[in-house]
Structure formats: C-alpha cells, structure tokens
Fold this sequence. Notes:
By secondary structure, the protein is of the alpha/beta class. The chain has helices at residues 13-19, 32-38, 50-58, 62-72, 95-108, 126-135, 153-165, 182-195, 211-221, 242-249, 260-274, 291-294, 298-310, 317-330, 340-354, 362-369, 381-391, 409-420, 427-435, 440-446; strands spanning 5-8, 42-47, 78-82, 112-116, 138-144, 170-175, 200-204, 225-228, 462-463, 478-484, 487-493, 499-502, 527-530, 535-540, 547-548, 553-559, 562-567, 572-576, 583-584, 589-593. It is 36% helix and 17% strand. Helix 2 packs antiparallel against helix 11 (260-274) and helix 5 (95-108) crosses helix 19.
Amino acid sequence: xxxxxxxxxxxxxxxxxxxxxxxxxxxxxxxxxxxxxxxxxxxxxxxxxxxxxxxxxxxxxxxxxxxxxxxxxxxxxxxxxxxxxxxxxxxxxxxxxxxxxxxxxxxxxxxxxxxxxxxxxxxxxxxxxxxxxxxxxxxxxxxxxxxxxxxxxxxxxxxxxxxxxxxxxxxxxxxxxxxxxxxxxxxxxxxxxxxxxxxxxxxxxxxxxxxxxxxxxxxxxxxxxxxxxxxxxxxxxxxxxxxxxxxxxxxxxxxxxxxxxxxxxxxxxxxxxxxxxxxxxxxxxxxxxxxxxxxxxxxxxxxxxxxxxxxxxxxxxxxxxxxxxxxxxxxxxxxxxxxxxxxxxxxxxxxxxxxxxxxxxxxxxxxxxxxxxxxxxxxxxxxxxxxxxxxxxxxxxxxxxxxxxxxxxxxxxxxxxxxxxxxxxxxxxxxxxxxxxxxxxxxxxxxxxxxxxxxxxxxxxxxxxxxxxxxxxxxxxxxxxxxxxxxxxxxxxxxxxxxxxxxxxxxxxxxxxxxxxxxxxxxxxxxxxxxxxxxxxxxxxxxxxxxxxxxxxxxxxxxxxxxxxxxxxxxxxxxxxxxxxxxxxxxxxxxxxx
Length: 594
C-alpha cells in the first residue's frame, strides 16, 4: 500500500490559478472516466472561486456542475474548498445559512470538506465543522500558511491541536503563495505529526519555484497526502506536476503506485483544453520570486492582473505588489487567502491609485474593525481609527463575529422567491443568491441560455465553411467567422465592402469591455462627481434630489469584488447620472451636485 497519496487539483485550483477559474464543466466531463481510474485520494473539484466564476462569467449553475461530476466520478472522493463562516462569499453568514449550505453540498456530491478561515480564527470553523459532522463526510481543517513574525511552528501546532479536538478527520497545510520552504516544511510536518494523530495533507503552490522540493521533504517528514496538478496545468501559479511526483517517488518507500501512462493520457487531454482559455492566461508562468516578499497567492495574482487592466493601471503591478506587504502588516498580518487576499490586494491597489488609506473599501473597514475575526497581530491604529469612525463603533469587535448575525435563511428564501417570481424555489437557488446577491439575479435570468462555450482561438478570422475556401464571386457576399473580445460572430461582407453581423455570438467574453464614458452634463449644470475606479454602481445611499453636504456618501460602487463609497465633493442637491447596475469606467461622471 502506498505511503503517500495524491489529491489532484486540476478541476479547481489549477484553472483558478492559471486562467481565472474559467474552465467550463463540458471541458471536465469527457476526461472524468480516466480521472476516476487513477486512484487519487481525492479530486478537488468545487468551492473556492469556482462558484463565483460559474454564475458571473460562465452562465453555469455550480450546483449542476457538482451533481454531474459526482455522477461521473463514482470511485473518487470529490473535495471542496470552504471558507468557514464565509462559505464561498466575501462576508460572514448566519449559522443557519452555513448549516444549510454544507448539508446541501454533501447531498449534491461533496465527500471532503476542506475548511479554512482566512485569519486562522478557530471560532470561524465552528458552524461549518458542526454541520459537516452531521453529514458524515470527511472534515479536513486547513491552516493558512504565512511567513510573518506571528506565524510560527508553535502557533501552527497549537491550531492543529484545536482542530483535531473539534473533530477534524485530517489536517491540511494550505500554502497558497508557495512560501513553504522545503526544510521548514519538513520541520513543520515533524512537529505536527508529534502533536496530532490524524493524516496531514500539504498544499503548496509552485509560484516561487520551491514546491516540488517542498513536497518531497514534507513526504520524508511523514506527510500522508500531497496536492498536485496534472502536468499540462501545473507550475507557474498552479502546483507541482502529478506525474513528476509519481516518478520522483517511484521505487521508494513513498511510491504512490499510480499509473504514469494513464496520467500522461490525462495530461494530453488537458493540454488541448488549455488552448481554449489562452486569453485568460496569467503572464506569471515561471517562478516569480517577488512573491517571497508580497506573499500573493496564485489565484489572486492572475486576477490582480486583470483588475489592474480594468482600472487602466497595468503598469502599476510592481508598486501594488510592494504595497500589499505594507497593507498586510497594517491589517494585522492576515494570511493572504480568500477573502483576506482580495481585501488586502484591492486596498493595495487603491492605496497606489489614491494614496495610502485615503479610500477604504467596505471590506477593509470590516476587517480592521474585527468583523472577520481576530487577526494574528496588532493593526495600524490610524487605519483602525478610520474604520471604527466609518462604522460608528467605539472599539474593535472581539467576540465571534457570527454571533452578531441573526438567522437569515428564511429572509434570503423570501428574496429569492421575489426575484424568480415564484412561490417555490430550490435550496440551491436560495444559496446561490445568498453567496452573490448582486450577481445571482442576472444569472437566474440568463441561466436557460446555457453555459458559454470557449474554443481555441486562431490568429486570424476563420472563413466559413472551411479554412481555405475558394474566392467568392465578385457579385456574391463572402462569409467569415470573426472573433471579437472572445466572441465568434458570423460576418457577411457584401460586394460594396459593408460587413453585416448575422446571428449571435457562440461564446461570451469573460469580462465585458469597459463602457465608454458617458457624455458630461452641460456646462454649468452642476459639479460632476466621477467614478474613482472602473466598476458597477451597486446602490444609491441617498434619494435623488437629496440635499447633501460635502463628504456625504452618495453611491456605493463595486470594484474588484469589493465595495467602495463615492462621496459628495460639495454641498447641494444630488442628481444621479447613471442607474444602479451600470458598469462604469474610471472617471466617468456618475452624479452631479446642483
């Protein structure tokens, strides 16, 4: 029997890290039979950012993906990544929502719940762990790894004992940024094996180039399970190649016993699939040692690039990476994993664009005030002061944050019924709305259209019906398929040279082009308030025509998945120039003061 087992992350963390979580289910199912034959300890296939991406970009129902994968993988455990009290969203949920989510996920196909908290606050594990216990599924407690003065082997051992005591079936060291060095990993695993009597799994991204060596040393120290990714989706911001680890251990006491030839078939399949997502690929494909300082996790890195492009600030990536280290320290050294990575990363972007903490996101305010739980270290008192003033609180929250959240499932169910216009809704739809209430309504409207379709892009427009047709007669129109921003359109070129689009796109761009700035209001009509960043207008804070003072918050804009206040710049009556739900460009006028 093999002493080291492997969990393959190809269906979740690999594409989340390499191409912004865009892989569709139809690219997973054809290879499921072979994946099911390998003999993995588990396949990580759900959770993390897959849920968000499915409804935001892919027009896919994430619950249907889970059910289909469960049916296609009868012999392999499906693992999901669950963010403790955050579930899959960016806020804490009431305990009744956490319990319902875990119960439903178990029913629909999850076999292993890998549960973590971004701050490593054990109180935030409580509800999810209790719910998972009732399902009888495997509970894996994950410790978010970081390299700060406040993250020590002694602290990790203390956490491991707490998680084992509350019923974890196994323990994971979640090294989301590739910071776990080989010999430090060896010492950490040795210490954990002495402290707890449950299996230990190692999750280490390849971003800094150390992961293969780290996995070897951790196995030598007694790690029971290693996270890997099939080679065609490995390395870069992803993980160590499955085949590489199989061959490294072959013939040793750590032999995995897996069939290299079967793995190579799987690798060949995903090598072709990867071509479908070229436009989403991160430019960080090698070893990026800047991460040893910035500690940015793989998935965050690829998303950060796209977000900076949206803001017209692609040239600021190095400045943002440096600022992330500053923000992490000021925020109490939270490990950089969702949602803290998104909070810290977005705040770093805003610091670079607008000056340090001149604009705090709503989530930054909540983290500084203790609404996400206890951070490992003291925070910057000036930043905390700003957060408390924004929330009108006298001091930081020190109790379990979820204790302040009343039961909310019934309320969310009622809101979902209203959105769908029906008296009967599925639990899955209620939970989808609960996770992403700003995105779900639009998804529900478009769901019947089915998932988007991605295909390998060609260097030039492809003529129809073949790659090299005979020239059309001079008096006949020529037909082409033209790819625009990731969508294929059939175009007819008439003899006069006029192109006419016929039909609808067969694929949907992952990110809509930034809208052109609205025409400014007539001169003298008022003081214009521009959007500070590109994003979506979420809501008005005051009514149209309200008399406001300078500094009053008038609009909430969502940018980079975080919320930001837009304030009045002068006293007067507010007039809104764009409706809620509108995507706006940076500096586009969104309101005026008259």
